[in-house]
Amino acid sequence: MFELLVPPTNAQLDRVAGAVSYDRHVRPALMLDTIRTLQDSGVEPDIWKVEGVHSPDDCERVVEMARRDGRDEVSCIVLGHGADEEKVRSWLQIAASVYGFIGFAVGRTTFWSPIADFLAKKITREQAASRIADRYGEWAAIFERAHRSQVNVV
User: Fold this and answer.
1) What angle is formed at CA 111 by the lines to CA 106 and CA 113, rounded to 5 degrees?
2) How many CB atoms lie within 10 A of CB 48?
3) pTM given for the model
4) Which of these, 1, 21, 49, 96, could form a disulfide with 147 (CB 3.0-4.6 Å)?
């Protein structure tokens, strides 16, 4: 498993007027270039953990790159990238709808707030665990619904 993170440089952010534009218009192409370069250098994970992208077409291109040249068994999972809940929901739905995305890894968006509240003694350990479990269950349900629809059309 390889976690691919492609953060912007300040120059890239300036060129495209911010992080949202970078995520939509620059990062997907950089992800493809990076996967190709890593594969050409002998990095051959079975699973690529990639940041969420904003379109099914970009997800499809990521899978195509990950599976190029006979790498037919390689899969992808989508990361939450510490994004807000709305963005994570969107990324999960998009990724799950694309053949080749098999799961997700959404950490900070799942546990950050409950753990912060627990450490601040605003909630109990049990309440924090319950909130984390509920949120993870929500992500799983979103992914599963979108994934089921993708499986039905393949």
Assistant:
1) 125
2) 27
3) 0.87
4) 96
- The torsion of the CA quartet 132, 133, 138, 143, rounded to 10 degrees, works out to 100
Are the beta carbons of 95 and 139 closer than 8 angstroms? no
Q: Is the pLDDT of residue 154 over 50?
A: no
Distance CA 21, CA 2 (A): 25
Residue 23 has pLDDT above 90, yes or no: no
What is the C-alpha to C-alpha distance for residues 105 and 34, in angstroms, rounded to an integer?
20
Percent of the chain with pLDDT over 90: 77
**Phi and psi at residue 120, to the nearest 5°:** -85, 5
Query: Can you spell out the DSSP letters for 77-140?
Result: EEE-TT--HHHHHHHHHHHHTSTTEEEEE--HHHHHHHHHHHHTTSS-HHHHHHHHHHHHHHHH
Order of strands, sheet of 47-51, starting from the edge strand that comes earlier in the sequence: 2-4, 47-51, 75-79, 101-105
Other Cβ atoms closer than 10 A to 126: 9
- For Cα atoms 101, 102, 108, give the angle at the middle one, nearest 5 degrees: 90
